[in-house]
Amino acid sequence: MPIRHIHIPLLAVFLLFLWSLPGAAQSPSLAEPMKTAVFPSLESAIRIKGPLEFCGEYVPIHLPEVRERLEKELLLMLWDRAQVILWLKRTGRYFPHIEVVLKGANMPDDLKYVAVIESALKPHAGSNKGARGIWQFIPSTARNYDLVVDYSMDERRNFFLSTKAAVRYLGELHDMFGSWTLGCAGYNMGEQGLKKQIEKQEVKDYYRLHLPNETERYIPRAIAAKLILSDPARYGFDLRPGDYYTPTSFDRIKLKAKYPTPIALVAKAAKTYYKNIRDLNPQILTDVIPKGDHVLYLPEGAAEEFAKQYHPLIAKYRKTLKPVTYVVKRGDSLTGIARRHDMSLWQLCKLNKLSTKSTIRPGQKLHVGE
After folding, report:
1. What is the rounded CA–CA span in Å between residue 266 and residue 292?
2. What is the pTM assigned to this prediction?
C-alpha cells in the first residue's frame, strides 16, 4: 500500500506545540487545580451516635426500627451527592429568611429542614397530587392560609408568602397534636388522617405509630437532612462561603390595578426586563397581572422611580383598550355574570347603566370591562 503524505500547515504545528506545554490546556476560568474527592465511606457515615434531637424532641435511635429508618434516609441522601450540593447551595438563598420567620414565631429552627425534604428548596417544585412551591401546599390548604390560588395567581410559588403560611400552619399543627414530630406528620398526611390513626391506635408518639410509608419516612428524612446540612464537612462536602447562592435583593411595592395590567408594562416602568419581573414574582401565572390589589417584587432600587414611570405608561395603555362585552346567554343572571368576570354586581350595573333589579335577555350585550 502506498504511503500517503499528510500536509499540516505550519501554523497548526505551532498551535499543537503550544497546547502540549504544561498548563497550556487550562482555560483561565479553570486555572485553579481541581481536587480529588475525599469523603467518608457510606458505612462510617451512618454510624450515628446519640443523643439526637429534632425540634427539641428526643429521637429514639436506640429503637432498632427507628435507627434503620434514619440510616436508610442518610444513605439515600449521601448516595446522591450532587443533589445534596444543590441543597447546600440553596440554603444560602432561602434559610436566612425562614430562620427569621421561625424565630419571630418562637418556633424551632429545625423546621427549616421540612422545606428541604418537601421541595429541595425549589420554588417551582410540584407533585402529582397538585402540591406546589417550596412548602408544597395543596390548593385547599393554601387557601385556608390566605394564599391565592386561581388561574392567574398562585401564591404557593411565592417563597415569602408561602413561608409565612407554612409557619402559621405548622404552629397550629403543633398546638393540635402537642408535639413537633406529630405536627410535621400532620403537615405531610393531613391533620384529619393523623387524628384518625392516633384515635384508632391509641398512641400519641410519632415513632410508635403505624402510618403511611411516606409519613413514616418524613421525620427521618428531615433528621437526615439536618445531620448533613448542619455539618456538611463531616460528610465530605467542602463548600466555601462563595459557593452558596445568595438571597435575592428586591424592592416591594403595592400595585392597585384597576384593569388587567401587562407584565411587560410593569417591567418597562421598573426599567428592567419582563423575565426579571416574572422571576421575582413566580406567583403570576400569565402575561397579565389581574385587576385588584397586589404586592409586587421589583429589582432592588426600582421602586423609587416606579410610580413616576408607571402612571403615564398605564394611562397610555388604557387608551388602547376597547370595551369588553359579554353576550347574555339563556339562564344568565347579573350576579352570575359579575362573578364570572371578577367584578361586583354594583360595578356591572354602573358600567351598563342598569339597576340590580334590571331584567336581561339572551343576546343582550353587556360591558364587563375596559
Report:
1. 15
2. 0.79
